[in-house]
Amino acid sequence: MEEEQTKGIGDYLDILWRRKYWVIIPAIILMTVSAYIVMAMPAIYKSQGVILIESQDIPDDLVRTTITSYADQRIELIRQRLMTTNRIIPIIEKHNLYTQQRNNNASTSDIVDRFKQNIGVEIVQANVTDPASGRAKQASIAFRVWFIDESAEKAKQVTDEIVTEFLSENVRVRTARAEETTSFLKLEGDRMQKEVQKTETEIAEFRDQYSDSLPDLLDYNLAMVQSIQQEISSIENQIMVMNDQISTMGIQLSMVPRDTVGLNAAEPGQPSTAEIELQELKSEYRSMQSRYSANHPDLQRTKRQIDALEAELGVVGSPRSELESQLTAAKSNLQNLKQRYSSEHPDMKAAEAEVSRIERMLQDLPPDVANESTGGQQQGISSNPVYIEVAAKIDASRREVGRMRQRQQELRNKLAEYEQRVYKTNQVQRAYLDLTRDHENKLNQYRELRAKQLEAELAQTLESESKGESFVLIEPPRVSAKPEKPDRPKLMAMAFVGSLGAGAGLAILLELLFGGVRGYAQISQLVGKTPLVVIPVIATEHDKRRKRVNRIRILIVFILMVIAGIAAIHYYIMNLEVLWFKVMNKLNVL
């Protein structure tokens, strides 16, 4: 069986021609209905305002703003704040929007959602060159705010209010941010100031508590230690010199007779030869006492010589006087030994034992012995001026040595105090450095906060005087004369094409469902043989008249449709005179 012959474009055109009424009549009906629907659709007007994002007037190097977010972030932030239910409802009530929905008791959320759908914010970006890096980048230079409504006037009014809200909200947000920053830095600066004052109080109390051991006084304390040590050493040398002088004067005193004897006396005030010899023997005897024991032959021989001279001179020796002389010599010997040996040396111990022995002997003397007199004079009073003078010098020197030792002890106490100060300085220094370091850190933080506070105050002044980055309305909203929606010419063209397509589709569908055998090719295919004769259609006069009438009708319908289309363009789309001038302008005729 042969395959069915595929229809060509000629066949389809023949079908459309045979069923032209099924194409034209539905197309006209659909076009009329579509035109009515398009014309009946409510006009939606759009009002738009353009806001320019102006950069800061004063360079950032001079005054730095406290706003760190980008412009598009702030725009979105302001949009979110304005698109809240509490901000939208007053606008809807003020401009009496969506009256029908509100009268029908529509929910608030539905009305708010419709308002959000009718409002739009579009950011305008441009390719700019970054002055810091020199690279090209996109920057937000402006943004558009628009609102659509069935009333052009209401769309303009709402857009005006929204634009105003954007401008005022931007100023409020920037000013509030600057004020918050300034207030925060001021509070932090005041808190840090109290911390600094607290640390300064602690340092002052610490300095009062350890005023003598501060690191600042270390050099002074060391200098005082050195000075005191030098003074102690100097006094020690003076004491040694004074002790030497006392020893020398003790030796001289031992050689001077205590009383002046008249038998062999020389001139007044001058000792005789026997007296000088007696004094020398006594001095030698005292010297030997420090070297020999009491039973030594040389010591006993010298003692006998002294006794013989005293008997010759008539000097009656007092036991107390003799012991006092021995005690003076022993003490002088002890002082000399102290300068050479330590207290544990055997000679030092022997000298101290000798002094103790003589002192006990003095204490053991009976009172009557102490009060015996020689030559009618009291034993304790000397009649020799030289003896008195030397004894006075020795006594003065001993008192001076006592004062020096007292001063030396005071200096040693003072030296211990200053050494304790130096010793404590290291410990005090660690605590003091911790306090001063803490104070320095807090002081630096305080200065930094105050500097930032001044910068924030400048930034606040910058924002309050609108010298920072700002939004400037460069194109205010206007009442639109042309509706934004619907686009009637486009919808009419789509309706025209759709109507014709629907009519053609209907004709082809009818042909497929109810079509018969037509034409030479279909008969040949159906019979399997070619026809012998093809008889053409013979049109009668009636058929011809009917065709003419139909053509006239079609022409009239076409003319009516053209007139209706022109009227629709004139009344619903654009005035014909304006359209004529635009067409002529496009064609460069006018």
SSE order and pairing:
Blueprint: H1 9-18, H2 20-40, E1 45-54, H3 71-82, H4 85-95, H5 99-103, H6 108-118, E2 119-129, E3 136-149, H7 152-209, H8 218-255, H9 273-289, H10 297-313, H11 319-338, H12 346-364, H13 367-370, E4 373-374, E5 377-378, H14 385-464, E6 470-475, H15 488-514, H16 519-527, H17 541-573, H18 576-586
Antiparallel strand pairs: 1-3, 1-6, 2-3, 4-5
Beta strand %:
5-15%
Give the low-confidence spans: 261-269, 368-380
What structural class do you assign from the helix and strand content? alpha+beta
Radius of gyration: 68 Å
Which shape, going by the Cα principal axes? rod-shaped
Record the strand order, biggest sheet: 2-3-1-6
Counted by DSSP, the helix tally is: 18
Helices and strands, in order, run as HHEHHHHEEHHHHHHHEEHEHHHH
Indicate the percent of residues in helices: 55-70%
What number is the mean pLDDT?
75
Number of strands: 6
Q: What summary fits the major beta sheet?
A: 4 strands, antiparallel
Summary tags:
590 residues, alpha+beta
Q: What would your notes on this structure say?
A:
With 590 residues, the chain is an alpha+beta fold. Among the domains are: 1-41 and 500-529, no CATH class; 45-190 and 451-475; 536-590. Helix content is 68%, strand content 8%. The protein has 18 helices and six strands. The chain has helices at 9-18, 20-40, 71-82, 85-95, 99-103, 108-118, 152-209, 218-255, 273-289, 297-313, 319-338, 346-364, 367-370, 385-464, 488-514, 519-527, 541-573, 576-586, and strands at residues 45-54, 119-129, 136-149, 373-374, 377-378, 470-475.
